[in-house]
Every structure is written in structure tokens, then in C-alpha cells.
């Protein structure tokens, strides 16, 4: 069975789960992306068609349901270069999650004539989207957002 193993790239992440649990471990990404040169990104991984994913910790590997993931903190500096399209308008926002957690940062809105508003971006079909914060990149699950406000300092 060893010959059936598919090579993966291990990326360290912190998961914030619906039950309030915070888990540190690894996700396993494909060494090549369907959409660009280089490895699959954490954003692509969470937006793919699979409901469950392998999550590795020091205790071993378990399979988690993506629907229970509120957000993912990505601890890989390479991720940011794939998260935002060149020429995107960066919009500062405060996101309030259903658990009360608040994330302040920037989202990238593509400059497409018929989809330039923040509301249009929030209503896109992909479940997860990236937010650039002072701490790094967070991948947010839109299904667990209570509200989004333009960032007021």
C-alpha cells in the first residue's frame, strides 16, 4: 500500500472551531494547484468540494468537517501572495463571528464592474475567504459570520 501514497505539503495552521475549541496542527496540501503555478493554497484547500479533511497533530491524524471550522490562521508566509488578486481593491473591515470574536483586517475585492461592492463580495459562492490582519492571514468561513462592518478606527 505504500506505493499508493500521494505526496503532500504539510502546512501549519490554527483552527478555530464552532464549539469554541482552538486547535494547532497541520493540513496536507497538494504540491500543485489546479489554478496557478506552485502548491495548492490553504484557501483553495478549504474551498474544494470535499466536506472532510485530514488534520495532523502530535497525537496523530483525524478527519474534521469543514462546516465546523469558523476560521483558520495560516502560519505560512507564502500564503499571502496567492490570497489576493493583483489590482484588487483592499477594503478594511471588522468581521464579527457568531461566537463574538472580532477580526479587523483587509479583504481584497476584485475590480470587476458588476461586483465591486463589499456586499457583492460577501455574497460570493465560495465558503471561505482570506483576511489580511496585523497578525497574518486568516481564512474565514462566511457561514459563521454574524456581521461585517467597514473598519472604523
What does this entry look like structurally?
10% of the residues lie in helices and 44% in strands. It starts with 8 loop residues before the first strand and ends with a strand. The chain contains three helices and ten strands. By secondary structure, it is mainly beta. The chain has a seven-stranded antiparallel sheet.
Question: Brief overview, please?
Answer:
With 153 residues, the protein is mainly beta. It has helices at 42-47, 80-83, 118-122; strands at 9-17, 22-29, 52-57, 60-65, 69-74, 89-97, 102-109, 128-132, 137-141, 145-150. The protein has a seven-stranded antiparallel β-sheet with strand order 4-3-2-1-5-9-8.
* Shape descriptor: globular
The H/E string reads EEHEEEHEEHEEE
Summing up helix and strand content along with how strands pair, one would put the structural category as mainly beta
> How many angstroms does the end-to-end distance come to?
56 Å
Count of individual helical segments:
3
Radius of gyration from the alpha-carbon trace, in angstroms? 16 Å
Helix content: under 10%
